[in-house]
Amino acid sequence: MAALQQEWVASPAPINCIALGSSIIATGGQERRCCVWRLKDAEHLQSFAASTSSITCLDLDHDETHVLSGCEGGSARVYDLREGKASRGLTGHRNQVNCCRFHPYGEFVATGGADSTVKVWDARKKACLQTYKGHGGEVDAVCFSPDGRWLASASRGDGQIRVWDLTAGKLLKGFGASRRAQAVFAKTLVFSPTELVLAASCSDRTARLYDLEQWKELGATHPASLEAHAVRECAFSSSGRSLVVAAENGMRQWNVANVKPISREIEGGLAGVCALKCGDDCTVACRRDGVVRVYNASLAYEDDFEDDVSDEAEAKEASPVEEPPASKIDAKASPSVVFAPSQRRGLAPRNTKTDRRRLSTSDLEDVKRRASQPKADGASVDDAITEILMGRKAKHELEARLEQLEHASKQWGAGNGEEAFRALSGRNFSWEAVGDFLERVDATDLTLDAASTLAECAERWLKACCAAESDRAGEVCVLVVDACSCALDSHGPAIAAAATAPALGVDLSREDRVRRCAEAQQRFRAVAGACAGVAFFGDAAVRASKFAARCGELFP
Description:
Elements (H helix, E strand, L loop, with lengths): L2 E7 L5 E6 L3 E6 L3 E6 L5 E6 L5 E6 L5 E6 L3 E6 L4 E7 L5 E6 L5 E6 L4 E5 L4 E6 L6 E6 L5 E6 L4 E6 L4 E7 L9 E6 L5 E6 L4 E5 L4 E5 L10 E6 L5 E6 L2 E6 L4 E2 L4 E2 L5 E6 L2 E8 L2 E8 L12 H8 L43 H11 L8 H33 L3 H7 L7 H8 L9 H21 L2 H28 L9 H23 L8 H16 L2
Antiparallel strand pairs: 1-29, 2-3, 3-4, 4-5, 6-7, 7-8, 8-9, 10-11, 11-12, 12-13, 14-15, 15-16, 16-17, 18-19, 19-20, 20-21, 22-23, 23-24, 24-25, 24-26, 27-28, 28-29
Helix pairs in contact: 2-3, 3-4, 3-5, 4-6, 5-7, 6-7, 6-8, 7-8, 7-9, 8-9
């Protein structure tokens, strides 16, 4: 059930758009002003005069220090919340700006207009870098990929979704939302944070998922799932494993892997849904006239996807009536430009060493054996119940540990080191499973992204080991520090030098690498800070001290 968190009158005039962040929310509309509010208590923070025309779209940057707005007159503006003023004006569209988005890094922005064009801007220089033409009508949605290399756009005029390569400045692929190009069009677009999957909320009351590696439709939510109400927004969870779809009468969480609902419908009066944001929970902002309402709903635990399927989905599976098939990609879509595999980020290579031990299941078998033994004479009922419950708990913990290892091993074998480390750092993770995994893999040839993810997870692993204070925890600390040392030796000098490398014009690839290196540097520093907690582990303390000293040399 979606619970109402805040409600307030934001404007005497109707509100057209909302930008929702983790701590602030921005509103804009026919009052021709951009207002910024604190999300926690709806306190008004700042207000900016936009222009002589109404505000039609808004977006917040990643750090929530800037607001981007588009107006009916065809201009866009960037507001600096730290300085409290409009810092940049971007003029170039011949007609209304329908959508706008900040780039994941740097100060680049994208806008889509009623003049059928998509523009990419360097907001620092107030210059238009690229203009993409080809849509057959108004552009309703734009969205950057998480790595900042691609830009997706959608138009109601031709029903097309187009994906553009920012580095090459050209079209990668165009495809329709249905067989009949203009019958269905995408209203909003969002990229998955973890893989090349694009989600679109469409005009036929569905949300559709597209695989951007195979360039095909993965599936679509069933329109009857939200009682024939129009789908307004969709957003991926932070892991990318589920998609939350918001309509006028409520929300629903869907499993991305099989496009099936994984929770019952989250009901709530979501009239005028305008913005949706997902993390551990789901936050949705609605507007009606000048009133803003913010709702919050808990998401289903994603590890229970296989078991947690709604009654409605089960009924559909048992029903002899088949659902309408998901629409296929338009065969007459625009010509594609082949995406060179060399442009993709590398993944950690598969470990080919054969001298690795398998995880022993003797502990699990011992639990089963004890549970099957008859109870001694004279044992009380309470003692029997306690032993059974403790046995079940231990069995559950061991099974969860084995499941984590299996998932991590599968990802590592597929060459995806980042996901392998994240699999060992999920909810209720086991530091013992981390030790079992690191004993069996070689962390010397990780990519930059995998090394950064390792450092991010290592901080949590070390803190968990320090809390355990056992001999095995000390052994795991040694394995964690050694893995981080290998990653630091491989990428530390390049990370340290990235920030001082000279810039040659506007280089999106360089911006991406600088951002990734800065992030990795912060994570390695955090690991060095966590190393102070392993002082009582003997050998681990010596290695941790050397690692911290090496970090200090590279990142003074």
